[in-house]
DNA sequence: TAGAGTTAATGGTATAGACCACTATACAAC
DNA sequence: GTTGTATAGTGGTCTATACCATTAACTCTA
């Protein structure tokens, strides 16, 4: 019996460090889960198994799993193993993001009016969130959101990705932004981080929303990530406090 | 030269495993931050420094710091060091946690003052949510929530379950509601449905929160379910808009 | 003085090994 | 059948070490 000169290098791990090994493994495992190869409740290969398969240290494999645990994709049970987690209930928060669907569920006719659509330089806080240089070009889309022709929110999106210039030619009064992104630009919104706070309506939005200056509004900021976990949108929205309620399911 | 029988045990770390070393160190560091010994922006001892001070491995010290980073208490900058983070009053909505745990994670001292604790008849909208008859008895608990003695929210809970009368004897200034429910009444909060809207502060809460009447606030209503999916609490909370932010992770 | 190189310290990654606590299973003893 | 017991596998913790990438301060040079 002759040993092979070197163990076969498993698909997907490249040791010539373009990216850390643990990160490559993490993304490999994420892919298995995302594509349904491994289903919720199923056993993930053990740390020792992974370390042997990919010829890496157990601690390195463990680091990959650690991050997946903290992201909620898998969970561990001591003595038993590591399992694929059930998709979170929070995942069903499409009501929070999808304005169009949200309104339809409430039996209202959603519509939009484009207030601004142009190329601008990214402000510092936006650039930081999108992981680009401050002042780099981004596409700014500002829309007034209505339900049954009643103004409900002003949403300002700043987008950055390859080919974003094409957006300037789109008709966002007719087509939803996410719909266009998915079908024409291969950008699929996969997850988002959103913050909600109470504020007073400012001068700029007061006219569009048809409320008095100083009226309470819901102010949300959202960073949206695509299927490869790249941030592509920074959205700043102001909702009328007297008309809008967010619904969240916690577990 | 004679070696001491055992190296001097640094204050706070006990190697006779009541708890993992990294956990003990983590709590030590959390204490330093919570008590203000280390202030936001200040440099935390480096990983190598910690490992020498406490005579532990660098990887162990690193694990303690890792968890503090993921809790948002500190942040790292490669080549510079690890720093104490600015406290953010951001409530994560991806998990179901009580106010007390939430504040503790942010290294703030949570406290409560009981404004009301009595038996009342359930109003119609509360009864509907708790699936009981309107007018049925419920325990009403109204608390002022503070962080570092600063008023943050007024929370009104109405509870209904077998043995709820016992709650009237509890000291909720000292003990958290969910803690008491879990340990004494076998009620474990399992999931919740929460709504968030912007509103103006009303007369009733204005005094307790120390804001002006009409100031923007976050108004949330929550129905909480126990381990058997029975609704046991209807909670109505008003958070100061100038101090509080909700954070949601969407996928 | 301005710039370029050096150096020391930091966090980031990775390895190899060790022991513990817990779980499930197989198998022997009752 | 039931009850222990041994065993192997799993995640949990910990050590010791090594090298890399980035930062900041210092030093030397033009």
Q: List the domain count of chain A as a whole number.
A: 2
Task: Return the CATH class of the largest domain in chain A.
Answer: Alpha Beta
Which oligomerization state do the chains in this entry correspond to? homodimer
Number of DSSP strand runs of chain A: 10
- Basic shape of chain A: elongated
Q: Identify the most extensive interface between protein chains.
A: A-B, 33 and 30 residues
CATH architecture of the largest domain in chain A: 3-Layer(aba) Sandwich
Q: What is the C-alpha radius of gyration of chain A, as a whole number of Å?
A: 22 Å
Strand order of the largest sheet of chain A: 4-5-6-9-8-7
By secondary-structure content and strand pairing, the structural class of chain A works out as: alpha+beta
Low-confidence stretches of chain A: 1-10, 88-96
CATH topology name of the largest domain in chain A: Chorismate lyase
Question: What is the string of helix and strand elements of chain A?
Answer: HEHHEEHHEHEEHEHEEE
Mean model confidence by pLDDT of chain A: 78
Q: What is the percent of helical residues of chain A?
A: 25-40%
Q: Roughly what fraction of the amino acids of chain A lie in strands?
A: 25-35%
| Biggest sheet overview of chain A | 6 strands, antiparallel
Considering the protein shown, what is the CATH homologous superfamily of the largest domain in chain A? Chorismate lyase-like
């Amino acid at each position: 019996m002759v040993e092979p000169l070197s163990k076969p290098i498993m698909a997907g791990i490249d040791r010539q460090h373009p990216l850390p090994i643990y990160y490559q493994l993490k993304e490999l495992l994420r892919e298995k889960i995302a594509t349904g190869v491994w289903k919720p409740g199923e056993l993930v290969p053990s740390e020792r198994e992974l370390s042997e398969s990919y010829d890496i240290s157990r601690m390195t494999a463990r680091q990959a799993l650690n991050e997946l645990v903290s992201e909620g994709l898998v969970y561990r049970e001591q003595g038993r193993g590591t399992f694929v987690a059930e998709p979170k209930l929070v995942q069903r928060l499409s009501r929070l993001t999808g304005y169009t669907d949200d309104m339809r569920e409430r039996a209202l006719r959603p519509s939009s009016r484009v207030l601004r659509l142009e190329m601008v330089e990214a402000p510092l806080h936006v650039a930081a969130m999108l992981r680009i240089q401050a002042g780099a070009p981004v596409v700014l889309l500002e829309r007034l959101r209505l339900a049954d022709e009643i103004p409900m929110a002003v949403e300002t999106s700043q987008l950055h990705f390859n080919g974003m210039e094409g957006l300037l030619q789109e008709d966002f009064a007719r087509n939803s932004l996410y719909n266009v992104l998915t079908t024409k630009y291969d950008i699929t919104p996969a997850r988002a981080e959103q913050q909600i706070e109470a504020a007073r309506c400012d001068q700029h939005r007061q006219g569009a929303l048809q409320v008095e200056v100083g009226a309470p509004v819901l102010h949300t900021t959202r960073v949206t990530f695509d299927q490869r976990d790249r941030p592509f949108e920074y959205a700043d929205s102001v909702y009328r406090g007297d008309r809008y309620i967010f619904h969240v399911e916690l577990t």
